[in-house]
Amino acid sequence: MVRRLVFDRILQVEEQTAAGQEQRESSISEDNYSFRVVGEETLAGRHCFVVEVQPKRADSYLFVGRLWIDAQDFGIARISGRPATKLSFWITAANFQRDFQRIDGFWLPARDETSVEGNP
């Protein structure tokens, strides 16, 4: 039941996001988010700027959270947060963290972790 209510919904949103208009409407850009630098950290041996992100509208494709931006090439090293809107009645909280690693000049997914809390 949890898989059907939670993970299938998250996967459905990810699939929709990967195509066309949804991709533009969910991109990490000034069109969709307000940004504020809140500090600096070393992450996996790389100096990063920590940036707070707030969506400009309530949308299931957007998130509230933080980005870790590599200070050398400005790639996204980590994204951490929660969806900007409630996913369903059954889900009370959904938090995620996505880590990326730089391989041959490209930032590629390294780890994706999601925790979900729901109504009994």
Determine the mean pLDDT: 84
Number of strands: 6
| Low-pLDDT windows of residues | none
Report helical residue fraction. Answer: 10-25%
Distance between the termini: 11 Å
- Count of individual domains: 1
Biggest beta sheet summary:
6 strands, antiparallel
How many DSSP H or I helices?
Answer: 2
SS strand fraction: over 45%
How are helices and strands ordered from N to C?
Answer: HHEEEEEE
Structure description:
With 120 residues, the chain is an alpha+beta fold. It has one domain (2-118). Helices cover 19% and strands 52% of the residues. Strands 1-2-3-4-5-6 form a 6-stranded antiparallel sheet, with no helix packed on it.
Q: How is this structure best summarized?
A:
The chain is an alpha+beta fold and 120 residues long.
Q: What features would you highlight for this structure?
A:
globular, alpha+beta, 19% helix, single chain
Secondary-structure map:
Layout: H1 2-17, H2 20-26, E1 33-43, E2 46-55, E3 63-70, E4 76-83, E5 91-103, E6 106-118
Antiparallel strand pairs: 1-2, 2-3, 3-4, 4-5, 5-6
